[in-house]
Structure prediction request, 134 residues.
Amino acid sequence: MSGQSQLPLPAATGGLIPVAAYVRMSTEHQQYSTENQLDRIKEYAARRGMEIVRIFADEGKSGLSIKGRESLRQMIAVVEAGKAEFKGILAYDISRWGRFQDADESGYYEYICKRAGIAVSYQPESHRQCRVAV
Prediction:
């Protein structure tokens, strides 16, 4: 991801469902770099008729708090403002969404998205069952 915190991409075409990708890595020593996470998310999206139209990336950021996670904060702000050009958010797994000390905090951010009609899907296993509305 080379320091890019977010990347708007061309609009979805051909009836594909527009989705955003959220990737996060706290240290360089983790098995799944943001690039690896994004590769897996792209593979999943392509198999399921989805097109990634925006990427939000927090590199070198702890998942314990939203503090310092500018891309997550920006993504939530876009969703709350009703300006999301995507109908779902894909993350590699729940730990990439966050390792919040209070589980309700994680749920709170997911609920903000759900309330706006934007599904959040994480964990490779749950991606098979991702329900992003058309």
